[in-house]
Amino acid sequence: MLDNAATTRAAPAHQGPSLRARLFAGLGVAVAVVAIIWFIWWFLVGQNHVATDNAYVDADVADITPLVSGPVTQVLANDTQAVKAGQALVVLDPADFQIAVAQAKAQLGQAQRRVQGYFANEGALSGQVAARQADITHADAQIMSAQSDLDRANTELARRQRLAASGAVSGDEITQAENAFHNAVAAVDMARAAKVQAVANRGAAEGAKSVNTALIAGGPVDANPEVAAAEANVRAAQLNLDRTVLIAPFDGVVAKKDVAVGQRVQVGQSLMTVVPVSKVYVDANFKEEQLRKVQIGQPVTLTADLYGGGVKFHGRVVGLSGGTGAAFALIPAQNATGNWIKVVQRLPVRVALDPDELRRHPLKVGLSMNADIDVTHH
Asked: What are the distances in angstroms from CA 320 to CA 59, 283, 295, 345, 348?
């Protein structure tokens, strides 16, 4: 009996490995299999992908700001409202600008009539120049006539002076001859002065004609600088009138509305924002060591927290930022200080999305995204 009991107690020492040993062995095999599978996956797939969950939807939004000041008469869009390109959003009181347009048009009419008068004066001034030239010709004739009378008076006076010695001519005749000579001299001087006056009048007429010719040079009435300036004033006034209606620059959704009827707005004041939800993009912030193989044009697969992993978006890398977020921070990090601790930086990578996918599953600015870049081809 004792031998049988000893044999029974000694039997377990000759049995196989214990349960714990078998579990550890199985766990080791499982870990090895997982490691092999992970290595194979990393070699075939993982090393050709970089991913991040630090990605957000963004867009080139448009701030609606007035280019003219005035009171608001209508607000035609509200927050979250979808709008189309060219749709009126806000209307300002146009009364003052309508008056300005009317005044500019009146000034344009005055300028056109004034320039038309310049063209009409051109013929009249040409006639005045011709008349002053005729006055010069007449003055030349008067000088020749006066000079002839002077020559005759001088001859008569000389003859009488020669006869006076013999007593054949009386003193009265000599006196009359002298008076006639002096009158002839004065007539010549007057004729010459008249020519000088005629020449001066012709110069004045030619100057007036030159000024008028310069005013109409360059083409017809519409091409005249005075008319062109008045037309520019009309266009400027009309442009200001058109700017009393603020329109959407593109299709999108209204956000950040901050305007009400009756409010007087100033130039440059932000009234609302239009977000182009059909043209949003993603800025994915990858760590710097993830960017070794990232290049423009590589495909990107994205998911949004809004829709979950069941909805996938597809895009392309279209650009890498010129600096990290820390570099453009309001208060940049001072890495040159003595208490320096290296922090892995992230660089924004711009990803363009498929428009068709965006139409099916719209995204809003600021939503979180997960981005995975296929860097197989680099």
From this structure: 16, 9, 8, 14, 6
Q: Where in the chain is the domain with CATH 1.10.287.620?
A: 97-239
Contact 363, 280 (CB under 8 A): yes
Half-sphere exposure of 6 (CA within 13 A, CB side): 3
Given a contact cutoff of 8 angstroms between Cβ atoms, the answer to whether 86 and 254 are in contact is no
CA 253 → CA 246, 261, 273, 274, distances in Å? 15, 20, 8, 5
Contacting residues for 293 by C-beta, under 8 A, at least 6 apart = 50, 375, 378
List pLDDT tens digits, range 86-131: 999 999 999 999 999 999 999 999 988 887 777 777 667 677 777 7
pLDDT per residue as tens digits for the range 222-245: 777 888 899 999 999 999 999 999
Tokens representing 205 are 């007429």
| CA 54 to centroid of chain Cα atoms | 36
Q: List Cβ neighbours of 356 (8 Å cut-off, separation of 6 or more).
A: none
- The pLDDT tens digits of the residues spanning 141-189 come to 888 887 887 788 788 777 777 776 666 666 777 777 778 778 878 888 8
pLDDT score of 5:
47
CB 286 within 8 A of CB 319: no
User: In angstroms, what CA-CA distances link 267 with 1, 71, 74, 100, 274?
Assistant: 112, 12, 17, 18, 18
Q: Which residues contact 272 (CB under 8 A, 6 or more apart)?
A: 63, 64, 77, 79, 89, 90, 254, 255, 256, 257, 258, 259
Q: Classify domain 62-94+241-275 at the CATH topology level.
A: OB fold (Dihydrolipoamide Acetyltransferase, E2P) (2.40.50)
Superfamily of domain 97-239: Helix Hairpins (1.10.287.620)
First to last CA, the chain: 81
